[in-house]
Amino acid sequence: MPAWHGRRPLGADERLRGTAPLVPEAHMETHQLSFVLPSTPRAVTDTRHRVLAALCGWGLQPGSDVLDSLELATSELVTNAVKHAGPEPFSVDIRLRGGLVRIDVCDAGYELPRLSLPGSADENGRGLLIVTTLAARHDVELTPTGKRCWAEFEVPLEAIVDTKAASAAPSHP
User: How many helices, marked H, and strands, marked E, lie in the chain?
Assistant: First the structure.
């Protein structure tokens, strides 16, 4: 994981050994949420709500561009699992560490998704294109029980709220 200075990651040759992290300690904690849902259309909405609640609870700024991108990409990854992987339950794992959020969706399907360019009249087929456009990195990997589709998002420091400071601030009547 890159160390952050301002808006750009530091390369390995730019990191200083034995110094404090450049990202505030409060934002270096690792947060993780994992859950399993049945493969039903309602699972898309349920997943989106759980992921948004977790990310906001971990300090991502509500209404930020990165949070909107994470919400859309999560919906697309879960929709693909529900539509293409069969009736078996699927799992979602989301992690925040420093300036990086990773979403993993694991399902029982072995067919790998393919990036396509649908026509303007096509109603489907844009999910992976959307994830490709929004994520910093993404991939699909076969697992012993199916596949894992994942996407990573770099979170700018201005999109992170210090939840410890916000909870310690006095409330105004």
Answer: 4, 7
- The model's pTM is 0.71
Return per-residue pLDDT of the chain as tens, 173 residues.
444 333 333 333 333 333 333 344 444 678 999 999 999 989 999 999 999 999 999 988 888 888 999 998 999 899 888 988 888 999 999 999 888 999 999 999 888 766 666 556 555 555 667 778 888 998 899 999 999 999 999 987 767 776 554 444 444 44
DSSP per-residue codes, 91-147: EEEEEEETTEEEEEEEES--PPP------TT-SS--HHHHHHHH-SEEEEEEETTEE
